[in-house]
Amino acid sequence: MTDGQDDKRIPLGVRDLPNHSLFDREPPPSLFHYTTLQGAYGIITSKQLWLTKIQHLNDLTELRHAIALFREMVQYWDRAITADEREFIDRVAHQLGSFAETNICVASFCEDGDLLSQWRGYSAGATGVTIGFSRAYLKSLTNKGFLNCWKCMYEPSEHRTIIRELVQMALNCFRMRETLPDEAAKATFVNNIIGYFNTTFLRVAPVLKDPHFREEKEWRIITTPQKSTHASFDVIMAGSRLLPIFRLEFPASEDPEFNVFDCLRIGPSANSSLVSNALFTLLIKHDYKRCSIMRSTAPYRAI
Length: 303
Hints:
- With about 300 residues, the protein is an alpha+beta fold.
- Helices cover about 35% and strands about 20% of the residues.
- The longest helix has 22 residues, at about 185-205.
């Protein structure tokens, strides 16, 4: 089952969630990726964006937060259900723990391209750049079938809404087994439900973020779980760390109006004039002729 082509017998796709629009939204005209000058150089010259395995990000609760919420919701589910239904949702909740280390990779973006906390946190003391990725590119990712670009959710009430809907969807589908003729068919159907549920849960879980990170106003490109043998899944050295990544190559487009990214903003503590001149040359050399260069307006200097 892929999003947009949900199984008609088992309605467990993302868009079967009544409130999927809390995260599944039209991106703004640009979303901004904060990075170091070295990171920007790599993105421009390789025409790739490296997505990081989610467990290696700075939020220690990635995926585990959504799994814990689901298990808590199941434990205290206060609606009338049968013993079979209780056994089923307990089974679903229990097996989610096996996905805590799955190879889901993400790239992070911010709605604000000149946010001081982001400069300080992700661009080497505000000496880096933000890259403004275009709406057209971000929307095109969904056509690949294994990627989404979604808005992160920080409010606990919204988290509970989505998790409650996931539980209810799973139960609704489980009840559909009663239309099947025998126990073998029912058992196969239930296994299919769990498989489809896992696919949807692992698409949604990365957008449920701890409220402490709400200032980041984050959107994410999110992969489905990837096999370690996938040609684009790799491990690199990042400083003193081994970092699993997914290499997302930029598309070649004959449309002159299509830009992967359309602006760069230089951090407030960078030597703006020198960096601007060098970036201009780099962009021309790598055929990003329609990308503008701006400078941060934040009155900040690293000391």
